[in-house]
Design a protein that fits this description.
Layout lengths: L6 E4 L5 E5 L18 H7 L4 H4 L5 E5 L35 H29 L2 E9 L18 E4 L8 H12 L2 E2 L2 E2 L2 E3 L7 H10 L3 E9 L12 H25 L1
Helix pairs in contact: 4-6
Length: 260
Amino acid sequence: MSLQINYHIHTIDSPFWSFALHDGHLIDDNLLPYLLLSEKQRLREEDPYTALIAELPVNQFVIGTSRFQLDINRAVEESVYLRPEQAWGLEVWKTNFPQTFLEQLYKKHQYIYRLIEQHIQSSIQKYGFFVVLDIHSYNANRESPTAAIDEEANPQINLGTYYNDLKWRELTDSFIHAITSQTLYGLPIDIRENVRFKGGYLTQFLNKRFGDKGCVFSIEFRKDFMNEWTGEPDVKRIAACKQLLINTVQGLKEYFAYEG
């Protein structure tokens, strides 16, 4: 049986990319007999609606398969959650998970990264550089649905830049300014670097290969645009996150036009 990984690539004439690696909720039918988690448990740790936010006027790479089947933002040997410590203490798979399926999933992971590498290389060849907006969301209210969020420890936007080459510091400052010059949900924006997350495997992979040609901004929105316990969306807030990034992409274009 061949396992399927659902993904979508949309390309335009642009050096900029948006990725939504954790939006997906799909599990291959062949794996369902081995899965221990309910849909609600999976949704809690997935990043629903990030594919909508990633619908920007740039190239797009969206994964429709759940991170609980294959986590594309982790190294291949960590991309299938075989131990609870890999998955927020959750037991994901029955102990008889077939080795053949595991090997297939690892090969799918390697295939996806070959695709990513080819597309980024094409951007570099055409434009001389690339910028990736790696869009995620995160839970900040783990104690209970009614607990107050610790806003000091959980910025509204966590910007992962830890793995980027220092040559992109000025670009990073410009990117942050483009965000903080706007509002989100009618309020000033609290964006901080590397507080909760530094960036996952995608940013490490791209920086290792192409770090002198471009960088990755791993954008983790706090799940203020949804109920992180039920998954219920706030459509207006999702649209606001998307518009924030549309405006910010325009700032990126202006930055590189000025640099050129």
